[in-house]
């Protein structure tokens, strides 16, 4: 029997610049995505009907609302086959952690079903289908480092020299992305947050291009961070603890609550991870490097 497994990375937002709320309720974003070596995997097996099983956190839905199931259904409609597959998801990306784990699983399901059904749609079509599922899905297909415009789905890859070493602090319990955007709007309406057109920082682009970890650490920036901190005040202390322990920079990943800390080398990441694990701030501390490729089949 044909079985296809696809591995897919988490993302951290190196910069997330949020414009004013649009008439359709969304925000224009400028998003610098960076794929890191924390992976989920999705295995698809031909079956009598569509089903989802999850290895890992129990908070992930196993019905048709699972983003991997939605991806399999959308691809099947596009190709003209029945979505009769068993999807098995091994989760290592935190759930509702601001690292786009659900979107990653959708991207992995698209690649896995495309291989299983031998539809050979090509990246452009998969990117379009991915954008229909969610604005973070196309980046999980592409991987690497990329600037995302619009709601984050119009992607341009960014040239990066070398590798960056990260430590991630997972919180106990997630934050809802819509709730964080709503808090961002509330803070801005009350005059407490930035109100600007989204943009990419030149310093960030230069640091990526030259492989300058110290420069990247200084340039990390997330407009959703004040909102995440407002909803979860303890995150402020967690970020400060990482800086006090020598991180080159610290930032809330996406809508949080995962905190990302940049280290100067793999050895520095080892030390920083051990030191952060000794603090009371995180349920789990993980190391990763980036950039890494997007969703790809495992041999
Ligand atoms: P983002 O960074 O894109 O805002 P996130 O990392 O904060 O997302 P996800 O882990 O993608 O959040 O999950 C958000 C919600 O999506 C979960 O609370 C869960 O109910 C739902 N969900 C649907 N499918 C999945 C999936 N395959 N894995 C995880 N969550 C899923």
CATH class type of the largest domain: Alpha Beta
* Strand content range: 25-35%
The helical percent reads 25-40%
Q: What general form does the structure show? A: globular
Order of helices and strands: EEEHEHHHEEEHHHEHHEEHEE
**Average residue-wise pLDDT:** 94
Would you identify the CATH architecture of the largest domain?
Answer: 2-Layer Sandwich
Using only CA atoms, what is the Rg?
19 Å
The overall number of domains is 2
Largest beta sheet, briefly?
8 strands, mixed
Ligand roster: adenosine-5'-triphosphate
Helix and strand composition category: alpha+beta
Spatial gap, N to C terminus:
16 Å
The low-pLDDT segments are none
CATH fold title of the largest domain: Ribosomal Protein S5, domain 2
Q: How many β-strand stretches?
A: 12
Number of helices: 10
Structural notes for this entry:
35% of the residues lie in helices and 28% in strands. Helix 6 packs antiparallel against helix 7. The chain folds into two domains: 4-158, Ribosomal Protein S5, domain 2, CATH 3.30.230; 164-290, 2-Layer Sandwich (Alpha-Beta Plaits), CATH 3.30.70.890. The protein is an alpha+beta fold. The strands form two sheets. Strands 1, 2, 3, 4, 5, 6, 8 and 12 form an eight-stranded mixed beta sheet that branches.
List the topology elements.
Elements: E1 4-21, E2 27-46, E3 51-55, H1 67-79, E4 85-90, H2 101-116, H3 123-133, H4 137-142, E5 145-149, E6 154-157, E7 164-170, H5 177-189, H6 202-210, H7 213-219, E8 221-222, H8 225-231, H9 234-244, E9 249-252, E10 259-263, H10 266-277, E11 284-290, E12 296-297
Parallel strand pairs: 1-8, 3-4
Antiparallel strand pairs: 1-2, 1-12, 2-4, 2-5, 5-6, 7-10, 7-11, 9-10
Helix pairs in contact: 1-2, 2-3, 5-8, 6-7
């Amino acid at each position: 029997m044909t079985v296809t497994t696809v591995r897919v990375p988490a993302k951290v937002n190196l910069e997330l610049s949020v414009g004013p709320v649009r008439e359709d309720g969304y925000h224009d974003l400028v998003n610098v995505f960076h794929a890191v070596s924390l992976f989920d995997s999705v295995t698809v097996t031909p079956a009598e009907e569509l089903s989802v099983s999850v290895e890992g956190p129990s908070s992930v839905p196993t019905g048709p609302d699972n983003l991997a199931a939605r991806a399999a259904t959308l691809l099947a409609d596009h190709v003209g086959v029945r979505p009769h597959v068993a999807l098995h998801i091994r989760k290592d990306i935190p759930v509702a952690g601001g690292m786009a784990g659900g979107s990653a699983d959708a991207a992995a399901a698209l690649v896995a079903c495309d291989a299983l059904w031998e539809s050979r749609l090509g990246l452009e079509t998969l990117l379009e289908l991915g954008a229909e599922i969610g604005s973070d899905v196309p980046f999980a297909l592409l991987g690497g480092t990329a600037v995302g415009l619009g709601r984050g789905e119009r992607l341009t890859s960014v040239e990066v020299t070398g590798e960056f070493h990260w430590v991630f602090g997972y919180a106990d319990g997630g934050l809802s992305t819509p709730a964080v955007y709503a808090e961002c709007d509330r803070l801005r309406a009350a005059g407490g947050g930035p109100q600007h057109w989204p943009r990419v920082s030149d310093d960030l682009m230069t640091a990526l291009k030259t492989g300058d970890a110290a420069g990247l650490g200084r340039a990390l920036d997330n407009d959703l961070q004040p909102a995440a901190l407002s909803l979860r005040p303890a995150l402020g202390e967690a970020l400060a603890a990482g800086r006090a322990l020598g991180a080159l920079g610290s930032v809330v990943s996406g809508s949080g609550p995962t905190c990302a800390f940049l280290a100067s080398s793999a050895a520095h990441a080892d030390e920083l991870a051990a030191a952060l694990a000794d603090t009371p701030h995180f349920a789990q501390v993980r190391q990763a490097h980036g950039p890494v490729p997007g969703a790809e089949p495992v041999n």
